[in-house]
Amino acid sequence: MSDETTVSSCGRTCTARGSYEETTTTSRRCDDLPRGMKGSGSETGSSPVNRTIKKKILQIFYVIIIGLIDHAIGYGSSKSYLHQEIYGSGPSFVQPVGNQTAAIGREAVFSCYVRNIGKYKVGWLKTSDQTVLSLNTKIVTHNTRIAVSYETGGCSSLPSIPMGIHSVTGNNQVTDEGVNCTWRLHIRHLKESDRGCYMCQINTSPMKSELGCLDILVPPDIVYGEETSKDLSVSEGENVTLNCQATGKPTPRVSWRREDGHHILIRNSTSFSNRKNIHFQTVEVYNDTKLQFYRVDRQQMGVYMCIATNDVPPSVSKRVTLEVNFAPVVEAPTQLLGGPVGKRITLECTVEAHPNTINYWQLNETGMLLDGPKYEIRETRIGYKIKMTLVIKKFTQYDPGNYKCIATNSLGKGESSIRLYDLKLQDDISIIGGLAEAARGSSNATNFHPNSLIYITLGALQLLVRVACSR
Fold first, then answer.
1. So what's the pLDDT on residue 161?
2. Residue 26 pLDDT > 70, yes or no?
3. I need a surface site. Which of 119, 121, 161, 180 has the fewest CB within 10 A?
4. Which residues form the Ig-like domain (predicted)?
């Protein structure tokens, strides 16, 4: 090939390709030729580099114009360049599946929003054991509590999706690929075993998936067995702890109350002190799983309620009965009484004991007095306290003496004495509840004379004199 042909060919190549491509394997670069041999095929007034830059700018401008037109007229073809640049060529998720929290026994629903599903399928599976639950709208698992539902256009109202992407009338293929679909996984009658994460999966290559986790709220439940106290029976002075354990999600709060509504008594000090001088801290509600009593006292005996709650209804409770055992303690409020013959006399004693006692009265230690024509015997029980009452229906000259109220149980025996005397007064005196009251003109002592206090005082002085003389 001649030099002129080579230059001519090279000139055309430089004009078209900017002096960078060789025409044949034997031809030289245009830049290697002499200055006078480069311009035979080039355009005048513009360099090849400038022309290339202008062409690229025009191409970019053209793409932008096409994109603006596509957005303005709602052009929805997934084959367009702009659609592929923004959304890709395959299906995609519109938004995350999200997490769910529901109480046991209720229903949880996971929603999976997918765009441009096309020929692909959507499935649900549980990630903990990789159990496949469904494929499209078909249930795969044998769990009857699992269901799926399918909706088209379920995401069309979401603000994150640009307008003009979902539908094109008259083009079924574009509508099938561009529509937004929703697959919902329904889990009914929730159990604790349903807790975990669930995956919405599209069978693309590589696989696409979104994850949502389920947390199950469980109402509180009392743990029975060694962890929770049963009814207790202890001796007075022992250390006692009431335990109450509960399960649930979230962790339950445990508190204690007394069933009778009284305040809970907590000993302030661990030091020993006389029963009558014990100081207690009183609380209406005690918040803890353990209720401790140091050197338990009879006043702390009762029924306690363990209550567990975690804001997931219903709350639960358990009754724990605390019995404090001690020997009987018997006291007579009045140990010396005087009564006139023919009147009704009442004697009283108080008993504190647990377990229950056998209670009876004696006169001069000769035997047990029985309820009948002569005597009326009553008992009133409130908790561990008992009020013993002996009524002498008609006091006679044979009734004065030493009366004993006696109480006995498995832990011991207690007794107290009341000495009863024949009281002779000048005026008509009636004895009510062991007290002498003067009544003028009436044997029922319903109306007091203005000088009744004087008569009472005189009667008391006379009684003291007679007691002193008898000793």
1. 35
2. no
3. 119
4. 91-212, 220-321, 328-421
The number of beta carbons lying within 10 Å of the beta carbon of residue 231 is 10
Identify the CA nearest to 172 among candidates 218, 118, 228, 226.
118
Decide: pTM greater than 0.70.
no
**What mean pLDDT is reported for the chain?**
76
Cβ(349)–Cβ(378) below 8 Å: no
* Angle, alpha carbons 461-464-465 (nearest 5°): 85
Position 209, amino acid: S
Dist CA 284 CA 105 (whole Å): 34
**Run of H or E including 248:** strand 246-249
Is the per-residue pLDDT at 369 higher than 90? yes
- Of 185, 179, 183, nearest in space to 91 by CA: 179
The two structure tokens encoding residue 374: 């002569």
- In whole angstroms, give the CA distance from residue 453 to residue 459: 10
Cα separation, 344 vs 188, whole angstroms = 77
**Residue 387 phi, psi (nearest 5):** -110, 115
Residue ranges of domains in the chain, CATH in brackets: 3-45 (no CATH), 92-217 (2.60.40.10), 223-326 (2.60.40.10), 332-470 (2.60.40.10)
List beta partners, residue 361. Answer: 405
Q: Both tokens of residue 170?
A: 């008259």
Residue from 248, 80, 306 nearest 174 by CA: 80
Alpha carbon distance 269, 295 (integer Å): 10
Shortest CA distance to 106 belongs to which of 187, 16, 223?
Answer: 187
Contact 216, 199 (CB under 8 A): no
Structure token digits, residue 206: 């590589």
- Pair of tokens at residue 152: 């088209």
**Structure confidence at residue 214 (pLDDT):** 97
Kindly compute the dihedral angle of the four CA atoms of residues 328, 332, 335, 339, in this order, to the nearest 10 degrees: -130
What does the pLDDT look like over 116-175, one tens digit per residue? 998 999 999 999 999 999 998 899 999 999 999 998 864 443 333 333 222 222 332 333
Max alpha carbon distance in the chain (Å)? 173
Q: DSSP strand E in 313-400: where? A: 316-331, 336-339, 345-354, 358-363, 375-382, 385-392
**Which H or E element spans position 462?**
helix 452-470
Per-residue pLDDT, averaged over 257-280, amounts to: 79
SS3 of 102, please? Answer: strand
